[in-house]
């Protein structure tokens, strides 16, 4: 008995010491591999009602920037409903999910602008605890940005007030200690929302990626980005090796570019065939469609991957599903896994997040390949 306990504790401490042993090669190779840039926002979420939506002219399933008519909304939300505060922002969410999936401290890093206030401090603590190596630019005057998340019947609408997030400057990116993160990373991910803030920073990273055969990725992020930030989006597009988006965003992109089709597969294909700045990598388009299959376009072909179906009663809220999908996807991509594994990890992460409130996750992922083998259906459409 004593012997068994001894050998057990011996093997336990052995495996434990193996576990916490200095970084092995895999871990070392992944340190700082993925860098995100974006708008760090504090999410203020509440379940509201239809009258509230009407009063502030809010449409469900939309993401917009706050206007003057929304100024009193935040106070009204806090006084009338139970509000929850969480660290958010599309890119930051995706990076945090990728970090969670990888479970290797410092594998990911993130830059964006926060204020010198309580919310900013909270955000920093949050991200560091999550293992993300954050290099925030701290604005002297503007408060940390916020995003109202109005939920009705499991659907939500986002109204962002960027405040400090809008003050990010490429000067911060160029500082040696920050540019070092760019030099170290091999994969870059920036959600389209950042196009409204610092296109110069985006182009600096995009050009660095192209010149060094690294992978540059962006997200269409919202219809308003495709419509009103068309020019800056078009400037960055040739540099994008991966383009993410959902079906609504893809259709808006097509409409804005005068493509006479609403067919998501065709649109994904056309985006993947948009001219490239560098020939080192082909472009891959990844479009999600809620519970419908994920569309992946590359090499003039389209593949469809079914998502993990969830019984209705288990769905809590789809807020952050898209961000989580990207995070899961990136966690495998940086390990050079094939695209089907990336999509499966994306679906896994999204599946975890939609069963919880907001973009939150349990302590550790339970990402077992065996449980995750949906029957893959491939469907090809002809390229022109
Ligand atoms: N109803 C659902 N059932 C199962 N999986 C879902 C459902 N909704 C979303 N997902 C998962 O989340 C992924 C992304 O979903 P979706 O296309 O709705 O993104 P989105 O609309 O950008 O999300 P968000 O609400 O974060 O903006 C899907 O590919 C899928 O894996
Ligand atoms: C190295 O670390 C990675 C990531 O934690 C782990 O998956 C892998 O099994 C480890 N390899 C060895 C040889 O210990
Ligand atoms: C955004 O936040 C700033 C700082 O808190 C505030 O002054 C401004 O009125 C807000 N704008 C909107 C449109 O809510
Ligand atoms: C895709 O995202 C947009 C916001 O960018 C949202 O309005 C739309 O409902 C989403 N589409 C689906 C099918 O989830
Ligand atoms: C980003 O891409 C994902 C997956 O393609 C999509 O579901 C999501 O709507 C996009 N959204 C944001 C906010 O970046």
Keywords:
15 helices, 384 residues, globular, binds adenosine-5'-triphosphate, 9-stranded mixed sheet, disordered N terminus, 5-stranded mixed sheet, alpha/beta, UDP-N-acetylmuramoyl-L-alanine:D-glutamate ligase
List the helices and strands and how they pair.
Blueprint: H1 2-19, H2 25-30, E1 34-37, E2 41-47, H3 50-55, E3 63-65, H4 73-80, E4 84-88, H5 90-102, E5 108-115, H6 118-129, E6 133-139, E7 146-152, E8 155-161, H7 170-174, H8 176-184, E9 187-191, H9 199-211, E10 215-219, H10 223-228, H11 230-236, E11 242-246, H12 247-256, H13 264-272, E12 284-289, E13 292-298, E14 301-305, H14 321-333, H15 339-353
Parallel strand pairs: 1-5, 1-9, 2-7, 3-8, 5-6, 9-10, 10-11, 11-12
Antiparallel strand pairs: 2-4, 7-8, 12-13, 13-14
Helix pairs in contact: 5-14, 14-15
Bound molecules: adenosine-5'-triphosphate (ATP) and 2-acetamido-2-deoxy-beta-D-glucopyranose (4 copies).
